């Protein structure tokens, strides 16, 4: 009964989303207030019915209803209840439902948090959200229904969830990542509404910016969570593999980052308008592209999802309609640039333009690397795969250049910046960061690494230039506390996010330079000695878990002869599916991780064991947390709400008048 | 003129869409063997049972046969093995093994314990023959025709379904050639 209710709720949600697409849009076109006002209640209804459907699927999982095909394929009565719930999005159908739930949630949020938005704009934005909802609801109902039953012969027991997914990572990573992906649908909807109405002023950007920042912050955390999960769960010791699906989440992040900066220019200076719209469309298009690549089977990836050509065709069609349609609209409606506002060569506009060009270049190289196997296959150039060396060759120098420009970007002013101002603000940071970069590798570690010197220089450069800019802004205040109070939250957000980039950069580079990676054969009693750490395998014994048996090694770790702790990596065999799993033993720390994973047994009680010492690996994710918090601070800035309120009041009469004519 | 520039993104997207459309009908996991349509590469190797023997590709001439790559370290081979034993008993087709990068003594023990479906198993300890064949990993099975030409490759386990749908019909056809 419950699954049927869920199925029915999805159909109702589809009907409501169709209405949400059509009615407000028609209303905005003909200036009918009543039709435009339906958008809020329709958006609410859309959310409510999707939420009911989602709840029904959750109930089916909790009750072990294995007559539902999707539940039977992804759950098992032995699993703890929190994994049963997260198993809801452990497969294609359920994760799609989660996607839609997020979409309807964002739609609801716009409907109820945007009271300051002019009615017609709100109607159009919600209609676009509704349209995206129609596409995904059709997709789930026609090709991937999670409520399909296995009747009359329902299995007694489920097939179990892939043990890799029975983990905290699955509970948090997909929801947060999808919040980011789907959040960019809001920026997209704002862009389409701007194109439809022809209204693209600084008020519009002030409405769009907080939503974009929120989505970006979620996506940042979502990607970082995925990277952290891969790090501790896969047992390979890596944290980023340039896998197509990772890239699929990274592409919208890159363009989204460009969008955030371009929106700043559009808001403050009224420039880059068409460009901003294009970025908003691209960001969401790349989110959709990610969905297409993951679920159609056109690329091979460790994230093997449902590889069903029929689904691929559907998403491709949807992609064509959404992206093709919006780019067509863009081509006809985007404002053509009139060179009325100028800025000089050295100005914040120039630096932000450089930021955008670099980010888009990085995005294009990652996109080409990701799609190259497909391109080569389609053109009969043979089967190829593109590995990390390709990505690193382009990514590292471009990203380094981007980071270098960050400091003058922050220190410059709009319109025109004198060289003198830059010199005044940046001389001290330059001296400090060059010194820090040159000294750090000499003091830390046993060998002098040039790339470390460079990374530390860049990291300190960003942070010290930020501090220098902060001091500059406080220079006129009688007391520094007054000055601090006058700085806006979005300024702090910017500083924090930039510091996050610095932290991640340092983490990535120091980790790759100083990591000590050893894959060794160890028998009980044997020792592995790294430069400072000593690992002794004391023994391997069998232990039992709730749904697995494991071989557990006990390894004694000491640092320069001093006892640190015992670490216990496991090799697990899950009883339901017979899957083998590596359970990594981790000793995390701010300045270094110890990482031990068990490989295969090699006979005579010996095991292949992977022993890694990874300095600064936590900084990679710590930086991402800073970035996301920065995004959050910017959203919390009061001025968006206040200004938006005033602008809306000012805009409302003229706009409705305009719509009526 | 300015307006035309705004069409560039649309054109780029259209090209990408064509690519994706083409991509949907391609299978990225399908790996064509470089040897498909060619003779089995030259080799001169002993067998698991007889280290003195020298086997050459001449064995493939005259009848349709299967060439199965296996190893004792390969878990999937253990799953596949019973079906090969069954196949050797029920179907009239010679199966040659390639014992790939393996320990010969362990391979002997494996064949004693689990039955031996092979005519004999060629010892490819260094993996040289596997390299020439373009083997990805074990198990892998090749269908070789009467002229000793490789006509088909199956990556992964051969089971009843693979036999019924993929290999069996092909073998029947090749026999009639």
Write a structural description.
Chain A has 661 residues and is α+β, with helices and mostly antiparallel strands. Among the domains of chain A are: 1-160, no CATH class; 419-486, no CATH class; 517-616, no CATH class. Chain A has 19 helices and 10 strands. Mean pLDDT of chain A is 87; it is low at 651-661. Chain B is α/β, with parallel strands linked by helices and 177 residues long. Chain B has a single domain (34-176), classed as Glutaredoxin (3-Layer(aba) Sandwich). In chain B, 40% of the residues lie in helices and 15% in strands. Chain B contains 6 helices and 5 strands, in the order H-H-E-H-E-H-E-H-E-E-H. Chain B has a 5-stranded mixed sheet. In chain B, helix 3 (75-90) links the parallel strand 1 (65-70) and strand 2. The longest helix of chain B is centred in the N-terminal third of the chain and has 17 residues, at 8-24. In chain B, 33% of the residues are buried. The mean pLDDT of chain B is 84. Chains A and B meet through helix 10, helix 11 and helix 12 of A and helix 2 of B.
Features:
A: 661 residues, alpha+beta, four-stranded antiparallel sheet, 19 helices, 10 strands, globular, B: 177 residues, alpha/beta, 6 helices
Element layout with pairings:
The complex is a heterodimer of chains A (661) and B (177).
Chain A: H1 2-30, H2 33-62, H3 69-74, H4 81-86, H5 92-113, H6 119-143, H7 168-197, H8 202-233, H9 244-269, H10 273-296, H11 309-333, H12 348-378, H13 388-411, H14 419-443, H15 450-473, H16 480-486, H17 489-514, E1 516-522, E2 527-529, E3 533-544, E4 548-559, E5 562-567, E6 570-574, E7 580-583, E8 585-587, E9 592-603, E10 606-615, H18 617-636, H19 638-660
Antiparallel strand pairs in A: 1-10, 2-3, 3-4, 4-5, 4-6, 6-7, 8-9, 9-10
Helix pairs in contact in A: 1-2, 1-6, 2-5, 2-6, 5-6, 5-7, 6-7, 6-11, 7-8, 7-10, 8-9, 8-18, 8-19, 9-10, 9-12, 10-11, 12-13, 13-15, 14-15, 15-17, 17-18
Chain B: H1 2-5, H2 8-24, E1 65-70, H3 75-90, E2 95-100, H4 104-114, E3 121-124, H5 128-133, E4 140-144, E5 150-155, H6 160-176
Parallel strand pairs in B: 1-2, 2-3
Antiparallel strand pairs in B: 1-4, 4-5
């Amino acid at each position: 009964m419950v699954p049927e209710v869920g199925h029915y709720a999805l159909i109702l949600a589809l009907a409501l989303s169709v209405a949400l697409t059509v009615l407000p849009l028609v209303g905005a076109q003909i200036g009918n207030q009543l039709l435009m006002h339906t958008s809020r209640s329709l958006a609410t209804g859309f959310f409510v019915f999707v939420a009911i459907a989602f709840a029904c699927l959750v109930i089916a999982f909790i009750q072990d209803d294995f007559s539902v095909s999707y539940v039977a394929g992804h759950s098992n009565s032995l699993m703890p209840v929190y994994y049963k719930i997260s198993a809801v999005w452990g497969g294609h159908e359920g994760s799609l439902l989660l996607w839609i739930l997020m979409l309807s949630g964002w739609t609801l949020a716009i409907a109820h948090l945007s009271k300051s938005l002019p009615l017609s704009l709100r109607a159009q934005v919600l209609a676009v959200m509704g349209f995206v909802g129609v596409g995904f609801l059709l997709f789930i109902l026609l090709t991937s229904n999670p409520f399909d039953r296995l009747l009359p012969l329902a299995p007694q027991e489920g097939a179990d969830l892939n043990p890799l997914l029975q983990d905290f990572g699955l509970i948090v990573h997909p929801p947060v990542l999808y919040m980011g992906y789907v959040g960019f649908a809001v920026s997209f909807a704002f862009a389409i509404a701007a194109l439809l109405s022809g209204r693209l002023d600084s008020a519009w950007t002030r409405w769009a910016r907080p939503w974009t920042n929120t989505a970006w912050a979620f996506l940042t955390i979502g990607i970082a969570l995925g990277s952290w999960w891969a790090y501790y769960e896969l047992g390979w010791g890596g944290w980023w593999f340039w896998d197509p699906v990772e890239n699929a989440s990274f592409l919208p992040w890159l363009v989204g980052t460009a969008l955030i900066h371009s929106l700043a220019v559009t808001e403050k200076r009224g420039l880059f308008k068409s460009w901003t719209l294009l970025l908003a469309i691209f960001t969401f298009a790349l989110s959709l592209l990610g969905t297409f690549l993951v679920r159609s089977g056109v690329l091979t990836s460790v994230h093997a999802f449902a590889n069903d050509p029929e689904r691929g065709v559907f998403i491709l069609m949807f992609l064509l309609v959404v992206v093709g349609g919006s780019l067509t609209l863009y081509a006809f409606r985007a404002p053509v640039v009139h060179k009325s506002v100028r800025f000089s060569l050295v100005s914040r506009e120039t630096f932000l333009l450089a930021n955008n060009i670099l980010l888009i270049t990085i995005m294009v190289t990652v996109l080409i690397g990701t799609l190259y196997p497909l391109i080569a296959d389609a053109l009969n150039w043979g089967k190829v795969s593109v590995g990390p060396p390709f990505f690193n060759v382009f990514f590292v120098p471009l990203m380094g250049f981007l980071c270098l420009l960050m400091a003058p970007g922050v220190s410059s002013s709009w319109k025109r910046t004198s060289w003198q101002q830059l010199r005044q603000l940046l001389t001290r940071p330059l001296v400090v960061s060059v010194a820090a970069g040159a000294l750090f590798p000499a003091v830390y570690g046993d060998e002098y690494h040039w790339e470390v010197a460079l990374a530390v220089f860049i990291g300190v450069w960003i942070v010290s230039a930020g501090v220098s800019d902060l001091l500059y802004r406080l220079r006129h205040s009688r007391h520094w506390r007054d000055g601090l109070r006058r700085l806006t939250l979005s300024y702090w957000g910017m500083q924090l996010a930039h510091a996050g980039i610095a932290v991640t950069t340092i983490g990535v580079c120091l980790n790759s330079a100083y990591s000590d990676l050893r894959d060794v054969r160890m028998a009980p009693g044997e020792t592995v000695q790294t430069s400072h750490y000593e690992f002794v395998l004391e023994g391997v014994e069998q232990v039992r878990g709730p749904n697995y048996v494991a071989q557990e090694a006990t390894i004694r770790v000491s640092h320069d002869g001093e006892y640190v702790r015992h670490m216990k990596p496991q090799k697990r065999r899950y009883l339901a599916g017979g899957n083998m799993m590596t359970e990594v033993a981790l000793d995390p720390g701010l300045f270094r991780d110890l990482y031990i994973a068990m490989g295969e047994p090699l006979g005579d009680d010996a095991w292949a064991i992977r022993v890694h010492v990874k300095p600064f690996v936590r900084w990679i994710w710590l930086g991402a947390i800073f970035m996301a918090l920065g995004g959050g601070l910017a959203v919390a800035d009061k001025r968006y709400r206040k200004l938006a309120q005033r602008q809306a009041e000012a805009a409302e009469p003229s706009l409705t008048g305009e719509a009526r004519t | 003129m300015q307006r035309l520039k705004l069409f560039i993104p649309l054109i780029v997207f259209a090209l990408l869409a064509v690519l994706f459309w083409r991509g949907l009908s391609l299978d990225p996991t399908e790996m064509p063997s470089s040897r498909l349509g060619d003779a089995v590469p030259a080799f001169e190797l002993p067998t698991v049972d007889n280290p003195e023997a020298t086997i050459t590709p001449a064995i493939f001439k005259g009848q349709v046969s299967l060439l199965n790559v296996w190893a004792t370290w390969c878990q999937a081979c253990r799953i596949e093995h019973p079906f090969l034993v069954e196949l050797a008993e029920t179907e009239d087709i010679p199966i040659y093994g390639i014992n790939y990068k393996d320990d010969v003594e362990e391979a002997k023990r494996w064949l004693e314990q689990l039955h031996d479906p092979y005519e004999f198993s060629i010892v490819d300890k260094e993996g040289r023959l596997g390299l020439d064949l373009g083997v990805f990993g074990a198990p892998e099975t090749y269908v070789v025709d009467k002229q000793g030409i490789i006509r088909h490759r199956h990556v992964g386990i051969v089971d009843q379904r693979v036999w019924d749908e993929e290999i069996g019909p092909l073998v029947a056809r090749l026999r009639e050639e």
